[in-house]
Amino acid sequence: MTKNPSRRDFSAGALATVAASTLPAPYVWAAEKKYDAGASDTEIKIGQTVPHSGPGSLYGVLGRIGEAYFQMLNEKGGINGRKIKFLTMDDAYSAPKCVEATRRLVEQEEVLALYGSLGTAPQTSVHKYLNSKGVPQLLLNTGASKWNNPKEFKWTMAGLPLYPTEARILARHVVNVKPNAKIGILYQNDDFGRDFLGPFKKVLADAGGTAQVIMEQTYDLTDPTVDSQLINLSKSGADVFYNITTGKATSQSIRKVAELGWKPLQLLSAGSTGRSILNAAGLENATGIVAIRYNKEVGLPKWEKDPDVMAFEELRKKYTPAIDQDNTIAFAGYGQAVTMGEILRRCGDDLTRANVLKQASKLAGFHSPYFLDGVTYDYTPEDYTPMKTLFISIFSGKDWDISDKPMSE
């Protein structure tokens, strides 16, 4: 598809041009056109880094669906008449490779902004660099608390529920249903894993400490399996298992719990609840898992008539038929591509990096097609928390049974 295997390059465009006179007041555009690097009368260049190879390659589909979406929009005429050139580059979930790819996007390709890049550790490696350059680092596929720091790092915004938000809500759920819980935790040995621990433990302590963490086990992304960690946890006496893992480690751990005959209450981080991950684990093995939900699913009868799911399915079939119909990670990427397109649409003819950031920080109330009804982005210029309304849900073996009422932080 491309000459350089580390780079995926599609020229793409977006929604039909909307006349400025028809826009609501906040979106009336200035007559003067303003451009930074990566933007012109005819083109807007944006980029991202995701693992198209390596241990996190499951998430490379985020880039492939982004390519498809922007190609589709290109065929419809462009965002405000401009084509989108979208570059999704492989960082193999490696910080050094992320630095190399990001510098190339900024210094050689001269993108206007980056969006949808993945991973706490890789994105931490370019966090200060992008902020020093004044390049928007938007809709990150990581919920690390550090991204909510508009005073010191205003150019960086997360795209997922913040991990502390998840952790606090799950801890409250444990206190409610198992007030004397003995909790075992498996977590990824990096910033991603550690960002859940403190908030989770603090809720337990604030509740009186009768529910306690009795064992913690860690794993590295390069570990071939997590079997030994699960064996240790199963022997600890824990009756709650908090599974803070990603990708193949999630699938392996869910399957191993079942093989061991261990039957704890299982908690799972929201970013690892995609159907492709659960399929690899065995859906029957995932029955009863509790997780935060804020998104719709694809490939399920429950959602097949949903207009947003139908639009995604039409895109998938036409442009990326090799992607499975039930790939919720791809659906998440679609939702973020739609959101990035909306940010650029709102920029009008002021395609400066400062205005891209301004429009992103004012997305409060925007509903991504990926989101459940009742969930919207909550960004403001002073608070970069992506969303504050979430749902507790339990996996039935076929679908997520979502609570009637959302929980807000």
TL;DR of this structure?
The chain has 409 residues and is α/β, with parallel strands linked by helices.
- Could you say which structural class the secondary elements and strand pairing correspond to? alpha/beta
Mean pLDDT: 91
Number of strands: 16
Strand content: 15-25%
**Largest beta-sheet details:** 8 strands, mixed
CATH architecture of the largest domain: 3-Layer(aba) Sandwich
Task: Describe, in plain words, how this protein is organized in 3D.
The protein contains eleven helices and 16 strands. It is an alpha/beta fold. The protein has two domains: 212 residues, Rossmann fold, CATH 3.40.50.2300; 130 residues, Response regulator (Rossmann fold), CATH 3.40.50.2300. Strands 8, 9, 10, 11, 12, 14, 15 and 16 form an eight-stranded mixed beta sheet that branches. The chain has a six-stranded mixed beta sheet with strand order 1-4-3-5-6-7, sandwiched between helices. Helix 1 crosses helix 10 and helix 10 packs across helix 11. The N and C termini lie far apart (44 Å). The N terminus is likely disordered. Belongs to the leucine-binding protein family. Keywords: Signal. This is Branched-chain amino acid ABC transporter substrate-binding protein.
Explain the layout of strands and helices:
Elements: E1 7-13, E2 34-35, E3 43-50, H1 61-75, E4 83-90, H2 95-108, E5 113-115, H3 120-133, E6 137-140, E7 156-158, H4 163-177, E8 182-188, H5 191-206, E9 212-219, H6 227-234, E10 240-244, H7 247-259, E11 265-268, H8 275-281, E12 290-293, H9 307-319, H10 328-347, E13 350-351, H11 353-360, E14 389-395, E15 400-402, E16 407-408
Parallel strand pairs: 2-13, 3-4, 3-5, 5-6, 6-7, 8-9, 8-10, 10-11, 11-12
Antiparallel strand pairs: 1-4, 12-14, 14-15, 14-16
Helix pairs in contact: 1-10, 2-3, 4-5, 6-7, 7-8, 10-11
